[in-house]
Structures are given as C-alpha cells and as structure tokens.
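Minutes, project check-in
Item: structure for the 78-residue chain
Input as provided by the requester:
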Amino acid sequence: MKFTIFNFGEELQEGLEMMGFEEATPIQQQAIPIIQNNIDLIACAQTGTGKTAAFVLPILDKLTKKKSNNKVNTIIIA
C-alpha cells in the first residue's frame, strides 16, 4: 500500500517522497487510519517494522493541517 492512500498533506507527502518512503509497512497500514480517525491505539510489532512512523506521521499531518489552539492533542507514552 502506497503512502499516498493516507491523504497526507502536501508537505508531509513531499518529505516522504524525498526520503524514498513509498510503501507502508503492515503496522503502518493498520495503525495510520485508526489514528487519523482520532481513535486511541495500542500497537505491538517487532523492532524495525515502522512503529514510530505509524504513530508520528498522522500526528505530524494533523499538526501541519491545523492551526495551533494551544490544546494538548497527543500524548505518547513509551
């Protein structure tokens, strides 16, 4: 599945393309749509499968599309 399916903003999509990221990993395919729909998520996958991008990309997309309202919109517990 290509990253273009997630309808990321132009800037984020351009960054992904510049870094050579074209295909989403299975964890990204499953997690990104859930996060884009503002649903809380707990996910588990092996090291190196793209977990960090799975939660960071939709967060960055949300932050770049909306103006700041000085409210907490994301909490990451590691």
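Outcome recorded: The mean pLDDT is 90.
No further action items on this chain.
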